[in-house]
């Protein structure tokens, strides 16, 4: 049961220090695990960073990695969650030739139906932003690639959990 | 006049800061942490620190090793025998990369060590400057913590943190990389010891319920077995551990890093577990009903095949590092925390017991091992000398009071199987990483940390030659290390595997060796070679009697094997006696 490969979102609360990304990624690398996506940002707590990673591994291995992540001096706490336990999003931007927006009626329909947002338009190109699940973004990419995409990039997953993560309480406990 | 002076002194002591260079600050930090000895090698990017070491040479002793790897192993030997933090220092680039083996060794064997490396000036970082290497990047996977300093003002806080992290909780190596400009820069120095880091909890709290559950399981056990590791020694829990073992009357076996926590002669000590461990504890691992692991991490050399390891037993794991729980062996009860605290709390919960019948099984199996293996190792009837009889002679003449520092290979297994220890922190060996070349420099550090103790380095002819240049350090420091090389003209352990698993294809394991005695004499050391049994006792006697460093080469049987043996990946109870 524990050996079945699953999709996990890993949330790591850390100090904001140089080199920590290297230290965290090394823990996955030494077990020959690919990091599918990675995002780092500030968290809800001042001075505390949050890493959000997505990996495909078995749960027993996931648990061991969480232990090894938490062992790192500058890691405050690490969690792992399934998709069902989180609200998650990714974001993508597309750069497309402006001509197409006016010449290809279909593009306008695609934009409307996908709930994508036009960020900017100029004579040469327009930029489209789409946030949502990976499948929605993949679909939009497929639809637009028929017409030609000048540039495309997609962010790592960001996720919040349905359950509370008691980082503030934990930090207070550390301080005593 | 006198009064004015006193007041002036008081004012001086109240001044909390003084303006000094970064490099002087490094020395002051080391002194504040109680460091009186450090091992290293100078070079361009660390020269300002060496300049200060010159000025402070009456307060802090720098030992020039002959290679930076030797500095790390010496620092490890120092740490392992003293329980204090070992310190190694090197320059940037190759100086820093040469530390890596020792750092990796300290990481896997939980040895407290602080390494300080010089780095090119901060404006040159990333420019492929002369002797620039990204040592923070390189050392990340093998350090407990590391950090680069580019401003002198960071030095006190970062070094205080380095020592705190290296020593607290599960100890480990910390590397601090300091740019040359930060070493030169002047700033207002003030030192405060570190007592905590907000993101780091060194010792997890011990849960009372898990302790109670563990005690209940132990009290109800019919065939309990304790396997203890270095956690008992690192946690300074020897007394508490002995009290638990004796009260509950449980046969207790050790991992290679755990030995010497209680005397090897203790009646409840049933020997070593693992690949070349003793027959009884390995076989009975798969027969016990409760396995109590204390401060050990179920290394694969201990467990063999995990699928068939102690499946019949309930597992209790006393452990300081939560990441070790359930990592290799699924536990029924985990008792987190420092071994000293948890064993002390466990003691009153235990019922006195003796488990006589269960003990008899260990004795019976020991007799089998004695007949098949030990007798031949210690009392050989063949012509060639065995490694075991050398150990027996050393035991006899040191009465088990020596600290034994070993390298890696056959001699290590023989030494750990047969060496007798009365005192804790007496067995210094590279367990987890299996670093050949560890033994000689580690013995230097051990001897310098405990000059009153007899420190004997036991090496094979292979590993000895990996760090043989440290004879220079021994000579220069007059470190009275006793060096025994058990020479079989082979990389013996690899040759043994080739014999057993590769149809005797001895690929690159035979060594054409130099005249080791001549080499030792080249370093002006007293040296002797023994080739015959009748010469052994006198030579060991002469070595032990010497107040100076002494080199003894013992030419042993070329193709002896170490048994018992659990072949790699086999079941512990399938341990082979021949």
TrEMBL record, chain A:
It is an enzyme of class 2 (transferase). Pfam families: ACT_AHAS_ss, ALS_ss_C. Residues 9-83 form the ACT domain. One of its GO terms (biological process) is L-valine biosynthetic process. Its EC number is 2.2.1.6. GO terms for molecular function: acetolactate synthase activity; acetolactate synthase regulator activity. Keywords: Amino-acid biosynthesis, Branched-chain amino acid biosynthesis, Transferase. It catalyses: 2 pyruvate + H(+) = (2S)-2-acetolactate + CO2. InterPro entries: Acetalactate_synth_ssu, Acetolactate_synth/TF_NikR_C, Acetolactate_synth_ssu_C, ACT-like_dom_sf, ACT_dom, AHAS_ACT, AHAS_small-like_ACT. GO terms for cellular component: cytosol. Pathway: Amino-acid biosynthesis; L-isoleucine biosynthesis; L-isoleucine from 2-oxobutanoate: step 1/4; Amino-acid biosynthesis; L-valine biosynthesis; L-valine from pyruvate: step 1/4. It comes from the Bacteria. Dimer of large and small chains. Belongs to the acetolactate synthase small subunit family. This is Acetolactate synthase small subunit. The gene is ilvN.
Automatic annotation (TrEMBL), chain B:
It is an enzyme of class 2 (transferase). It catalyses: 2 pyruvate + H(+) = (2S)-2-acetolactate + CO2. Its EC number is 2.2.1.6. GO terms for biological process: isoleucine biosynthetic process; L-valine biosynthetic process. Its cofactor is Mg(2+); thiamine diphosphate. Residues 211-346 form the Thiamine pyrophosphate enzyme central domain. Residues 407-554 form the Thiamine pyrophosphate enzyme TPP-binding domain. Pathway: Amino-acid biosynthesis; L-isoleucine biosynthesis; L-isoleucine from 2-oxobutanoate: step 1/4; Amino-acid biosynthesis; L-valine biosynthesis; L-valine from pyruvate: step 1/4. Residues 21-136 form the Thiamine pyrophosphate enzyme N-terminal TPP-binding domain. Keywords: Amino-acid biosynthesis, Branched-chain amino acid biosynthesis, FAD, Flavoprotein, Magnesium, Metal-binding, Thiamine pyrophosphate, Transferase. One of its GO terms (molecular function) is acetolactate synthase activity. GO terms for cellular component: acetolactate synthase complex. Binds 1 Mg(2+) ion per subunit. Signal peptide: none annotated. Coiled coil: none annotated. Belongs to the TPP enzyme family. This is Acetolactate synthase. It comes from Winogradskyella flava. The lineage of its organism: Bacteria, Pseudomonadati, Bacteroidota, Flavobacteriia, Flavobacteriales.
